[in-house]
């Protein structure tokens, strides 16, 4: 197989050279010619060597010479680089034409000469064009007609016409020419259809390429706008923190210094200002965190089980206060962005504990399922659940349910969605009101290639 592969490669380089992508029918004609030479040369010893021996034993010296020359021509066509491709085809057709007439001359009507003439016409149509094939049919028709007339009138003493019947000769020749014309005509119809398909395919490819380029351009613009938006959010959030700190400080200072001088209503108003500024500061911190997700991220292989164990310690006070239980088993090692992934689990666990039913201990289960191209994680709780009409909205930024009952900024699940997306996955929830929730998210196994393409 090694030598066969090297042989094929050498012939392709010699005959086809650096052929371009499919542009028209010539590509397929060239490929067909390459394969004809490839297999003809490879299997020629099976025909040429016995032909040489038979020619020598029967005394047909001209057939002996023709067999040797044919093999030499095949070698030149296969391995002699300077010959142009069209010239190779013409040499090949000419060689077949000479072989056909030599066989016809030496072996007469009973030999394979007429079959070779027929094959020359078909091969010409396949590797060159229908026009050349029709010209060959015309030349063969004229020559065969002259031979037929010579059989009848014996103008020349030719071996090929001795002992032949004019009726038989013209009967065979007419059928041969008729079949040649029909087959060439059929091939031409097929080739025209194929050429039309190739042209249409090229046009479609051009349209698709243009559309793909437009999509890529739009994606690049969108990425730039997203980056600008993130930068804007980061700048605004950072710049607003300073006046907020001043508001908090002055509100606290006023309350503490002038508590006795201020009426109760004034103290209440200042307390509202202080509480609202603290809530806005928390919101800005969350917005900064959201803008920073995915920046400067580093891939690594880490244990999800170990992350959950660390989160149990980090959230220990919240877990104790709510009598929560976290159950997990068989959590895998994955490749991803460890810090972001930990934040993802932290948000989901904190939400599961926070949104608990009154007077009922919360139980959270974490599970992982391995898929062909991703890991699927499930975080299930027995909390208050989520109504179906809210299940898609909860992942949008600043969207909050139960504003009056549960504290929060509305960025936790938006953070989760963004983290899952940089891991090449998706996140969704299945839930019924008062029957708990199951959050699903996937993490791509092909993060290495994603980062290269991204």
What is the averaged pLDDT score? 81
- Placed side by side, the strands forming the largest sheet appear as 2-4-5-7-6
Q: Quick one: how many beta strands?
A: 7
Percent of residues in helical segments?
55-70%
Enzyme class: transferase
Coiled coil: 301-365
Transmembrane segments: 32-57, 63-83, 90-107, 113-130, 137-156, 168-191
Catalytic activity: ATP + protein L-histidine = ADP + protein N-phospho-L-histidine
Describe what this molecule looks like in 3D.
The protein is α+β, with helices and mostly antiparallel strands. The chain folds into 2 domains: 2-164, no CATH class; 297-453, Histidine kinase-like ATPase, C-terminal domain (Heat Shock Protein 90, 2-Layer Sandwich). 67% of the residues lie in helices and 9% in strands. The protein has 13 helices and 7 strands. The protein has helices at residues 2-15, 25-58, 61-79, 85-107, 113-127, 130-153, 166-257, 264-292, 304-314, 316-321, 338-354, 412-422, 447-453, and strands at residues 299-303, 325-328, 333-337, 363-370, 374-381, 427-431, 437-444. The strands form 2 sheets. A 5-stranded mixed beta sheet has the order 2-4-5-7-6. A two-stranded antiparallel sheet has the order 1-3. Helix 5 (113-127) packs antiparallel against helix 6 and helix 11 packs antiparallel against helix 12 (412-422). The longest helix has 92 residues, at 166-257. The protein is rod-shaped, with a radius of gyration of 42 Å. The mean pLDDT is 81.
């Amino acid at each position: 197989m090694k030598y066969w592969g090297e042989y094929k490669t050498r012939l392709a380089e010699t005959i086809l050279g650096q052929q371009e992508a499919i542009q028209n029918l010539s590509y397929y004609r060239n490929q067909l010619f390459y394969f004809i030479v490839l297999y003809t040369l490879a299997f020629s010893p099976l025909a040429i060597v016995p032909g040489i021996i038979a020619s020598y034993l029967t005394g047909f010296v001209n057939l002996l010479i023709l067999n040797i020359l044919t093999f030499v021509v095949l070698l030149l066509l296969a391995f002699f680089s300077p010959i142009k491709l069209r010239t190779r085809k013409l040499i090949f057709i000419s060689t077949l034409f000479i072989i056909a007439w030599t066989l016809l001359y030496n072996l007469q009507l009973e030999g394979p000469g007429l079959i070779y003439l027929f094959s020359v016409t078909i091969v010409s149509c396949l590797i060159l064009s229908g026009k050349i094939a029709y010209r060959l049919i015309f030349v063969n028709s004229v020559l065969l007609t002259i031979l037929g007339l010579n059989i009848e009138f014996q103008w020349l003493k030719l071996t090929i016409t001795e002992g032949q019947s004019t009726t038989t000769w013209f009967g065979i020749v007419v059928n041969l020419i008729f079949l040649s014309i029909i087959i060439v005509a059929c091939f031409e119809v097929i080739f025209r259809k194929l050429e039309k398909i190739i042209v249409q395919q090229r046009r479609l490819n051009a349209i698709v390429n243009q559309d793909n380029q437009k999509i890529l351009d739009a994606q690049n613009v969108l990425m730039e706008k997203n980056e600008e938006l993130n930068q804007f959010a980061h700048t605004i959030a950072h710049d607003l923190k300073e006046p907020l700190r001043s508001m908090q400080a002055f509100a606290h200072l006023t309350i503490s210094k002038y508590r006795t001088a201020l009426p109760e209503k004034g103290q209440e108003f200042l307390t509202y200002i202080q509480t609202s500024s603290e809530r806005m500061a928390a919101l800005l911190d969350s917005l900064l965190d959201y803008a920073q997700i995915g920046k400067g991220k580093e891939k690594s292989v880490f244990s999800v089980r170990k992350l959950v164990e660390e989160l149990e310690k980090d959230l220990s006070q919240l877990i104790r206060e709510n009598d929560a239980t976290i159950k997990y088993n068989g959590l895998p090692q994955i490749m991803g962005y460890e810090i972001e992934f930990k934040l993802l689990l932290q948000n989901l666990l904190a939400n599961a504990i926070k949104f608990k039913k009154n007077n009922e201990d919360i139980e959270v289960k974490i599970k992982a399922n391995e898929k062909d191209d991703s890991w699927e994680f499930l975080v299930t709780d027995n909390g208050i659940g989520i109504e179906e009409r809210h299940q898609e909205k909860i992942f949008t930024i600043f969207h909050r349910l139960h504003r009056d009952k549960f504290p929060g900024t509305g960025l936790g699940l938006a953070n989760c969605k963004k983290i899952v997306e940089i891991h090449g996955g998706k996140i969704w929830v299945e839930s019924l009101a008062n029957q708990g929730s199951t959050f699903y998210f996937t993490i791509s196994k092909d993060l290495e290639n994603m980062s290269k393409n991204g």
